[in-house]
Amino acid sequence: MNSRLASLIRKEFIQIMRDKRTLAIILVIPIMQLFLLGYSATTDVRNIPLAVFDQCRCAESRALLDAYRAADYFKLAYDVGSENEIRVLIEQGKARAGIIIPPDYSVRLAEGDAQVAFILDGSDAAAGSTALAAATLIGQQHATTLMMEKLERSGMDVDNFQPPLEVRTRVWYNPDLASSYFMIPGVIGMILFAITSILTATAIVRERERGTIEQLIVTPIRPWELVVGKILPYVILAFIDTLEVLAIGHWWFGVPVRGSLWLILGCSGLLLLSGLGIGLFASTIANTQQEAMLTVWMTLLPSLFLSGFFFPLEAMPLVLRWFSYIVPLRYYLIIIRALLIKGVGVSAIWQEMLALTLFGLLIMAAAALRFRKRLD
Fold first, then answer.
1. How far is Cα 220 from Cα 42, in angstroms, rounded to an integer?
2. 307 and which of 25, 90, 329, 370 could share a cystine (Cβ 3.0–4.6 Å)?
3. Mean pLDDT confidence for 23-32
4. What are phi and psi of 126, to 5 degrees?
5. How far is CA 64 from CA 72, 172, 285, 368, 369, in A?
6. Where are the alpha helices (H) located in the chain, listed in sequence order?
7. Mean per-residue pLDDT for 324-351?
């Protein structure tokens, strides 16, 4: 590293240390995003308020309600006296589900054809689908328990009774199905992509706003040295953010780090190429920091929605899935989730690594060429 480049990097670090707002963005905001998304952006549905209209008031109906109470998916919040009360509670948002037990429940149960009505609020599709699956499963388990008790009362040896079909499920990598395992790796990609592109764009435009970029141009500093000197400090800080989020995600949220740390950092560096390229390209278009921020956000928002950060790619329409292939963040999220959760090696993610490398080199090359022409 020559003295001109070293001096420019030193100048940039001094400027960052003096700018408290930039330091807060780099070091504090990622932690805030991690905790906010780690706790709030979750698909785990628990304690759904349940309104109960029990018209039987018998031991059998209480046993059914106990089965729903025992599972932490539902909370028996309201005991109502009519079906209309359930409708009112759901319309007001106080209850998200309701169960109606008919007055002849115990009699029909003894005859083997009892039915209950379970009502769900479908205005929230995510919570509604989880509640529907939980309600169905709890009902099936309770029905199985009642059948076994009936067979035992009839004198049958239930210990040797085997159902005609038994499905044994096993969940790999995330046995508890914790949503933080999915969300925390995504936060790493979002922070790397957003911070590097935004700070790179604003750092270069800030020089233009203050009129100091002309002073840098007339010095012996070459264009590539100016680019490297401006963006290298943010690359270093981005890796610090990566280690920061990894440490908090592992020690606080319990997200495993099963893959090689060096491979994680290497793949993160591939994403940095795209983020830095987008920030550099935005700096050649914008004349103010506000324009640079807006230009970068025009690429960040589609990237977040089309990368699989919030929504599964498989659930998207075919056209949007096609567009997702030109989003670098898509490939990084596949990589980082596989490395952290599954602990895979290069052989499992080499295609995504190759795509990320090609995108990064193309974006960085195009941005560097345009930046050089802008300086000329």
1. 53
2. 329
3. 76
4. -65, -50
5. 15, 32, 65, 67, 70
6. 3-18, 20-23, 29-40, 59-70, 83-91, 105-111, 125-153, 180-210, 212-217, 223-251, 261-285, 289-306, 318-324, 328-337, 346-375
7. 90
For 75, the enclosing helix (H) or strand (E) is strand 74-79
pLDDT in tens, 165-208: 555 667 778 877 777 788 888 888 888 888 888 888 877 777 77
Distance CA 11, CA 112 (A): 81
- Give yes or no for a contact between 265 and 50, defined as CB atoms under 8 angstroms apart: no
Name, of 145-154, 257-266, 277-286, the range with top average pLDDT.
257-266
- C-alpha to C-alpha distances, 32 to 26, 76, 147, nearest whole angstrom: 11, 34, 51
Amino acid 358: pLDDT: 94
What phi, psi does 344 have (nearest 5°)?
-75, 175
What CA–CA distance (Å, rounded) separates 150 from 153?
Answer: 5
- Asked whether 90 and 119 are in contact (CB, 8 A), the reply is yes
CA distance linking residue 25 with residue 37, whole number of Å: 17
Check if the beta carbon of residue 196 is closer than 8 Å to that of residue 272: yes
Q: Residue 120's closest CA among 98, 140, 102? A: 98
Whether 313 has a pLDDT exceeding 60, the answer reads yes
Query: So what's the architecture of 49-160 in CATH?
Result: 3-Layer(aba) Sandwich (3.40)
d(CA 202, CA 368): 16
Range with lowest mean pLDDT among 113-127, 258-272, 336-350 = 113-127
Mean predicted lDDT score pLDDT of the chain: 80
Q: Which of 293, 310, 205, 190 is nearest to 241 (CA)?
A: 190
The residue extents of the domains of the chain are: 3-41+178-375, 49-160
Beta 97-101 vs 117-120: how paired, if at all? antiparallel
Question: Which pair of structure tokens corresponds to residue 157?
Answer: 């040896």
